Amino acid sequence: MTTGPATDRPVVSPPSPRPPRTRARSGRDALLAWGFLGPSVVVFALFLVYPLGRTVYLSMHGNDIIGRPNRFVGLSHFAEMASPEYVQVLVTTLLFTVGVVLPGVAGALVIVLLLEGVLRGQKFLRGAFALPFAFSVASASVIFAVFYSPGNSVLNGILYRLGLDQVPWLTSQEMALWSIVITTVWMNLGYGVLVLAAGIGSIPKEINEAARIDGATGPRLAWDVTVPMLGPQLFFLIVISTINALQSFGQIHILTGGGPVGSTTTLVYSVYQDAFAYGTSDFGRASAQALVLLLVVLVCTVVQFGVIERKVHYS
Amino acid sequence: MTTFPRRRGVKAAALLASLGLLLSACSGDDGAGGGGGDLSAPGPEVLDDLDEAVQVEFWHSMDATNGQVLDELIEGFNAENEGRVQVTGSFQGDYDTALANHRAAIQQGDTAELIMIYDLGTQFMIDSGQTVPAQSFIDEDGYDTAEVEEALLNYFTVGGELRSFPFNNSTPLMYINRDAFEEAGLDPDSPPTDLAEIREAAEDLTITDDDGTVVQYGFGAAVYGWFIEQFMARAAVPYCDNSNGRDGRATEVLFDDPKIVELVEWWDGMIEDDLAVQIGRNTDDGAAAFTSGRAAMTLESTGSLGGYIEQSDFEVGAGYFPLIGADDPGGSIIGGASLWINGEGHSPEEVRGSWEFVQYLLTPESQSVWHAGTGYLAVNTEGYNGPEAQERAEEFPQFSVAANQLADSEINENTAGCMMGVMSEARVAAEEGWETALTSDATAEEAMADAAGGVGRTIEEYNASVEE
């Protein structure tokens, strides 16, 4: 950003076409700068800083039955989170996130790499694979709800015809989370394909040609040349999918409502349950959990930048 | 909006709610805090000599078919009251969302004149002190409640006063696939009445293919906390202490009663032995299992009858909600929502206008339309004699089962149901205990006791915060 007053810029050549800068001039610059910055500062303050401050405030207060903060409770809402229930929520969140990000990114990469070998209809196939991106969370979840529906699951119907065992998609504590993971991976795949396909298109042809001349083909070419060249896109995708996964709500809400027995309750869903579900309005507990979620997202992102980004090659 | 699963809004709804919260938070601290205002019913004279019609905003949770029938009733009222009272209906999402919106509105001091709140929110509505008690209108006008369904008055009367006006109410039934009954050599005219009989029938109704995969289950219903409340009422066991919270604030829930443990064990056994399909907590899945023919018996609200008849390609039968043991006394509680008239922050004209509209809804004429159009009970029992209701009863005799079940029910504290500020959380806890027993190694006794114990803390917090 080139916003602040630039008074200390050395004037190199004497015959400068501009008059020497004065205090008045730099004051005008500053005014102009703030004028441009103003709208975004207001928006940030209103929709980012204020809600964050308010969340911190709420997290340290108890509520009356209307949801108004009415007593200071210090950090006790945070202390409560040291319970097995909350640890379970964190573990579920972690499993969900890893379960969504790894197959999601790897799947998109494999699809894009395989499509590279397809000469006819490549554009069509890319479009087809990117299509899930166009589905809203709600409609995709409703479709999967039909696939999984306990009484008459479409997927179980297919398994039955193949002579395979029925799967309790949403009704078993062990299975429900993975059913939501499958849904989410499917929903995210389109975006991954879109980003990586764009990335692969921007790799200079000379690099591939040079590698071919050196004798690299097929998997070797993909792994040693294409994948490293996709580094920035892959990194971007990992960061974005992680944040998205941590904030997933709609598919959990529609498919399981956090059950059975809390086995699909992630942090976001737990925040929702405390704040809005079941006629409650425990904004104190919900805010405390929201801050923990913020911290988790922050830590994940910082770690990703620290660990993965170092290996990313920006051409 | 499509019909979403019970107590599940859309993401957008939650988002809107949170946005509302954010905005309300700005003015939260100095909102309509304290008391004041006149919380008694004004007489009819306040609507004399009006310069313009009184505007009444009505927040409700009726969408799809039910919403259309409600809109018709609103239009009918507005046409009769031109220049006097004009009601505007406003759909607020499902019951939970509507309650969350109402809370935000209280914070902003901007509540609607008339609101529909589900049964579980009754104690909260009383404690929040925003509404004019229904009894106050009845006393002011000498309104006769003789025709109003007694079981409904029983539920919504707290401390000897009717607190709100029952409107969209139902009671659960057992539904059977009559065709499957006939194929299995069972008599569809006498459906099973208790758990042992259901199991016996399910053994005949369950069909397994050559590989041992079940193609038709005898039974399948959602793990829905309302059913536990119903089973307890029928077994004459209170759901919470202090006489179901009617003699004083409830301090603990009692759904770890041996009767309920027996029920959960039975349910687990049915699934274990492949006589029942495991549904989970979503009632839409229970409906799908029944209407598709996968489960030959199910439990659901009487409000589902119309949809079941429409969606099934077999003949649907309805019977009384089952008893746990054959010796249980029976009885039935209700579910659904009631109408509350806000007094805090509203003019006498608005309060009176809302009451006039409620009276219109409670007429036999309106109730006949409402019952026939939605399948909800006729709150005014005279409504069953209306032309629309009669026509429907002739076409589908199953519609009378719910009314009979209530008429056969004794009016006492057990059938009044539990009155408690955290009823909604209690219901979820009951579902979790029940589901734990079905999906893990925990015994029904442990699971229900754990769940009931967990509600204790929530009740304590709630009671402490309203007594402060």
Summarize the structure in words:
- Chain A is an all-alpha fold and 315 residues long.
- Chain A folds into two domains: 23-76, no CATH class; 80-311, MetI-like fold (Orthogonal Bundle), CATH 1.10.3720.10.
- Chain A has 13 helices and two strands.
- Chain A has helices at residues 23-59, 76-80, 84-116, 122-130, 137-148, 154-161, 176-201, 205-213, 218-229, 231-246, 250-255, 267-275, 283-307, and strands at 61-63, 69-72.
- In chain A, strands 1-2 form a two-stranded antiparallel ribbon.
- In chain A, helix 12 (267-275) packs antiparallel against helix 13 (283-307).
- The radius of gyration of chain A is 26 Å and the shape is flat.
- Mean pLDDT of chain A is 87; it is low at 1-7.
- Chain B has 468 residues and is of the alpha+beta class.
- Chain B has two domains: 38-170 and 335-385, 3-Layer(aba) Sandwich (D-Maltodextrin-Binding Protein, domain 2), CATH 3.40.190.10; 172-331 and 416-466, D-Maltodextrin-Binding Protein, domain 2.
- Helix content of chain B is 47%, strand content 13%.
- Chain B is built from 20 helices and 13 strands.
- Chain B has helices at residues 11-27, 64-80, 95-108, 122-128, 134-141, 150-156, 178-183, 195-205, 225-234, 241-245, 258-272, 283-291, 305-311, 348-361, 364-374, 387-395, 400-407, 413-416, 423-439, 444-467; strands at 54-60, 85-91, 114-118, 131-132, 157-158, 161-162, 165-170, 172-177, 207-208, 214-216, 297-301, 316-319, 335-342.
- In chain B, strands 1, 2, 3, 4, 7 and 13 form a six-stranded mixed β-sheet that branches.
- In chain B, strand 5 (157-158) and strand 6 (161-162) form a beta hairpin.
- In chain B, helix 9 (225-234) packs across helix 19.
- Chain B is globular.
- At the A-B interface, helix 1, helix 5 and helix 11 of A face helix 1, helix 3, helix 4, helix 12 and helix 19 of B.
